[in-house]
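Below is how a single chain appears once it has passed through the pipeline. First comes the sequence as given, then the structure the pipeline wrote out for it. We keep one example in the README because the format questions we get most often are answered faster by looking than by reading.
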Amino acid sequence: MKKYNKASFYSVLILFLIFVALLFVSQRNLKTNGILLTATTTHWGVVVKGYDLNYNFFYNGEKKTGNNSIDKIRGLKDFEGKYFPVIYDPKYGISQILIDPAEFKKYNVPFPDSLNWVLPYFK
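Resulting structure:
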């Protein structure tokens, strides 16, 4: 029985490490290969962990969709139907909408004056 528990533990540990490595690689790829585009937010979608903000954007004439969890504004209707920058990696098809000033800093994108209205939500 103990061998079975050890095997299960190591299997879960390996899967977790693979997940963390993939997350790290995808974030790094966004920083180095990401293209800055404009997204339109649509609605908050229910997911296991709460709500994700869904958005659409176009790349090379093709409509793309994405969603991201943004804890400080989760579920707020004020952020639906708005335009925000999105960073997109066409090679892997991953994207990150930029609303939180910390995300702009993380991806070395200047925070635009036009989004100053979001600042009170992130204090």
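Residues 2-33 form the longest helix (32 residues).

See the next section for the split statistics.
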